[in-house]
Design brief:
82 residues, mainly alpha, 2 strands
């Protein structure tokens, strides 16, 4: 079971076991979900920098790089399941 409410941003994952197809579907969902969050982080970082909070903006961009690395690994995991 996976619940997600974007406004309050609650996540509930009750993954005790799942078929390979269910796990793949969940990973695909999570990858796309993470990509949308990466876009949000990028916009926030740019707004921080534009507002004069350069240090926070740069730190957010550094975090975004790691986030994107994680997304790339999730994509590789999915490709290895095909």
């Amino acid at each position: 079971m996976h619940e997600h409410e974007h406004h309050e941003h609650h996540h509930h994952h009750n993954i005790v076991s799942g078929s390979p197809e269910e796990l793949k579907a969940l990973l695909e969902y999570m990858l796309h979900h993470n990509i949308s969050h990466a876009e949000d982080i990028s916009q926030i970082a740019e707004q921080l920098k534009a507002g004069g909070n350069t240090d926070a903006g740069e730190k957010a961009l550094s975090a975004l790089e790691k986030y994107n690395q994680g997304n790339a690994l999730l994509k590789e995991a999915l490709e290895s399941m095909k």
